[in-house]
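Exercise 7 asks you to align residues with tokens for two separate proteins.
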Amino acid sequence: MVTRSLRVVMVLALLSSLCSLAMADDGMFPMSELPRLNLAERGILLSAEELFSPGATSLVDGICRVNGCTGSFVSSDGLIITNHHCAFDAIQKASTRENDLLANGFSAATREQEIPAPDYQVRITEDYRDVSEQVLSVVTPGMPYLDRTKAIERRRKELEIAAEKEHPGLRAEVAEMFAGKTYVLFLYTYLKDVRLVFAPPASVGNFGGEVDNWEWPRHTGDFSFMRAYTAPNGTPATYSKDNIPYHPKRVVKVAPEGVDEGDAVFLLGYPGRTARHKTASFLRFEQDVRLPGIVELYQWQISEMEKAGAEDRAVALKHASRIKSLANVEKRSRGQLQGLKRAGIVATRTSSEAALQNFIDAESALKEKYGTVLADINTVYSEMSTAGQWEIELAQLRQACRAIAFGFYLYDAAVERAKPDLEREAPYMDRNFAQSSQEVRVAMSDWHPPTDHIMLTGMLERLCRKPQAQTIPALKALASNIAGINGKADELIKSTKLGDPAFLDACLKKTPEELNALNDPLLTLVIELYPAWTELRSLDKTREGRLNQLYGSLIDVKQQFESASFIPDANATLRFTSGHVRSYSPADAVIRTPISTLKGVMEKTTGIEPFDTPQAVLEKYAAGDFGSFVHPRLAQVPVAILYDTDTTGGNSGSPVLNAKGHLVGVNFDRCFEATINDFAWNTDYSRSIGVDIRYVLWITGTVYNGKHLLTEMGVGE
């Protein structure tokens, strides 16, 4: 049996062939890279082994993933600190018109008062090993691209299932590190009983709203506390009143003294997706097709949901999570569009690829092997651009209209569950199906038929105006009378049972033929559109197989050409990044200092959303009741901090750690200019934003009487 230590050495050896010792400051480094970094030069007083040590307890054991975000265990009883916007869905789901936790905040005085968050999971990294050879062993020369993708998918599933049998109680996931080249199997503990413990009012946790989102200075207390539970024997389990708090192997120590400008900081977290190794043709597709399409579609959806909830708080609460999620992506997409154009990244990458092509063409062996790689990649993205808007909107129909999403899940489940387990799409495999179905049930609690009617009408009208609609009988019929789509959509929404959880549970036991026989009008439309969606899914897999093979070759030849650092793009696996608390200049003659304060909250406060500071905060400020949480140099309670680490989506909730590895903040955002980080790094404009731990402690303990949580974290006044 390969030991954990040996596995890590294997991964390190593999990635060392792709990463040089002269690493740039940019990078979301995998754990395997830590021994190769000079941490002392980065101002960090810990060794690589203290951060992550195979077979021993280390700082990584105190870090977890909370759904799509990151969190930190800050007590031995499973208390987790993460972002308010990461806990937002749990807060929203527990809110009603009569008990509005979003507006009023929430604090559990006892464990019994903590509120279950049924669609949340906490994930803790336990181990990892290289499985590239095993994964790629199923690829044969000349293999059709769709078959290639399916073969790799199946092999990854086989390895995951085998690992879970070898390690009972753990979850396995195979992650692609370098496209088409390297794969790593990660083992995780998955905790399924997660509860809300403390959340400030949204007027603290989301102060400034979308006006301030992605901006600096920020004055947002974007934090919340949750708690993970296990069965009484310590194993992962779904919610039960008999469950006990999870006891992490490591607790992240809170540093109430915080940080100051110039201090070294580092983050551990689960960044989502970056695309720094993608070509200029990919960037053109993003700039010209995908990002503009997403901005327009999301702006429309947000506007309609805001109008629907304007006069009814209960409706507004149903839409709150979706609006927040869509608004975050919409503004980030606008920032990326702006950054792509202002920074000239497409032109820069085109120039570097021209130099690479010259290098390839100059040597016959390279030209024979790699001569058409860049052109072939460009061909794929050209095809995607031609069909881009149609494909984006066809896929978005399943997202914008929630009842369509529910119907697709039901029918897709029926089709997929009839296949052998390894041949199913991942959500429908036996190991995932219960959780996937639970997430759909939770989503149904927010279904609002009048809004869905608007979404269905708008998406069908968009699709039916496209020439491709003539190839799909259901859409062709609607396209013949676009003016009648509104009435037809109204009829479909009013007559469907797709928003009923009991209907969902009954349908999950049915075959595709039995679902079709139900004659639910909206489900029937889903079934009629289903071949178009599955064709699109197969097309995406074909492109994936083609691009992965091409990008694997591209990495090979770039390594020869550049002899430079290659850090894998972020992929939701655990990463390290470091930097300093640092100001920046977003425009000529403008310098923005890196610490905002409570004084700034007062200066922004208007009493009108999103700048409506709670009365409790105003009173404590007026009384000068700041305890020991005042910044000694600024003579104010610090609110947010700015630092030049390398982060992206998924780093929300990541601990901001000082040189000793103690918690000094909670990461929640980037500057607007830094949204371009996903495509290219630049230390001049790349800044991340976190809530200062002193503001967290002041809001929790002083303003909202959560001193028991400070005590639990080992922090006194």
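Second protein for Exercise 7:
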Amino acid sequence: MTDSYRYTDHETALDHAGVSGAREIPAWAISLGVHILVLMMLGSVTYVTGKIDNDTDLTSLLEEYDERDYKFENAIVQDIVGNASDANTLTASQAAAQVVNKNPQEVMQRELEEEILTVEAPPVNDIVAPPEADLARIVETSGTSDNVGGVEGSIDRMTYEIQNSLKERQTLVCWLFDESGSLAERRAEIADRFENIYGQLDAMNTDEHAPLKTAIVGFGKDLHFYTPEPITDVRKAVNLVRGIKDDDSGVEMVFSSVGSIVQKWGRKFRSARDKHNCMIVVVTDERGDDAGETFETLETVSHQCQQLGFKVYCIGNSSPFGRQQGFVRYVYPDKFEEDIPVDQGPESVNMEVVDLPFWGARGVNTSRISSGLGPYALTRLCAETGGMYLIAQDARGKQFDTVVMKDYLPDYRPARLYNNDISKNLAKQALLRAAESTRIARVAAPTLRFRADSDNALRTEAAEAQKAATIIDHRVSEIVMLLEAGEKDRTKLRTPRWKAAYDLALGRALAIQARAKGYNWMLAKAKTAPMTFETQGNNTWTMVPSSEVQTGPEVRKIVSKATEYLSRVVDEHPGTPWAYLAELELQNPLGWSWEESKIDYAAMGNGGGNDPNRVMFLEEIDPKTGKKRQVKRERPKL
């Protein structure tokens, strides 16, 4: 009751309300009228609440919701679970997905219900619930997980997700398998664990009203529904997974496949009469070929999944850092194994890292650096629909602490919003142009070893190397100009990821520019003033990194600026891929000096084996004869 109804004298109360002739009306009649009025008001509110559930309003609500503010800054949207994780805790990906993917109907209905409760109930002290991310951590450490990583850890996590879904209502789980030959082993691993999964879920029955239904679907270039309708027979599901044939097209239409599943079973299993929770579990090791050039297919499929309430999960591989291509291990029929490049990245909308060589550094392979994240499009589809991207296999190269990387997440908003931000910052524009430039026309690494068993041999090799050095110097100078054009907007960069990426790019470009100019100067000097070996019999000069910069003040200025930018990356972004690459660049000084040695060129043949036309053959030892044999294998399309 409000204060208007708390008068002890009925006449005073009615006079205050402005009602004439109140003295003749009984108190019970007044009370009845007021209560009827309140009930009518509540009835109208309830009608509005119920109307939100109608399907006719769903599309307009989602279209309006599409303009929401996307916030991923503080959460990784995929997890490495089990013993393969850096800690026995779950990252905040699940919380991120829930925040991004709240159903607008449920939000609006809950807000209206809260308003009604506020009118009817007296105020009480709020009970503060623990954050959802904390709940996820509790589950990971004390739940039913086997505490193992890789595929097993991912399957354990999916078992937990399905269990939670079944606590709410009947559930449909659609397993969508990549049919590539490289996934044969992973499909077999999952099939091996199917009966254990469903045994834990107590769904080993064939009742048509069983709480859990399963669909097995495969995709490559085409889509195959191995179960025309969802089934409850687990043994049949296992056999269907084992029977999936390899697709040799090299095409993975994952997003259109997800859309087809939603269209096929969405209305049936999400109807008001027979409403199921619906999950799609994508099993793949690549990024998919059909997200669209501007991710239009991703946007369409994500909208379909949200509209009909399908959550998408992915058991996949991590993306290589700042690159499109990663590697998968392929086993040939004769058991020979090879790493084959496949499209697995990048982890962001665009490649935000310049692709430059490391001069003078040995054993550096930047193609094997893991981002610790899934590919942008699949990761975003999972997060948008309330699912998760589970990393079943990380890169075999350099890896980084997922806790540190939480502060360096990519921009997971739609590409149009990403591009809109790019257009407002010159530093971001310069970085993306430079990164693209290094992939269109790659910067080569120079020759560092020169034959010098005669003065004429050294002059000839130095002259040829200078031609290549001139081209390299020109290319690197173009990249530096691109990056410096955005330097005035560098201070406007707000996120650690963009700051680290821009500083690393300019620092590395300047470092190579300094090296290129010093390299050219050293060769020119060697041609005009032949050098004398200190040790008799030496016949080779090798250019090695040196802290002494002999090329004048212009180059020393470039060296100073490069060192400033690279050192800033190391100091401000420790434990990240950007700092790792900056440290590699700084490991070798930016100047050059000569180092002499002796090589038996006659024994090596043809000038030391530098003939560019020389053909390399794959040779193996025959296990039966013990002799070398040449083997020719046709590389598969994955």
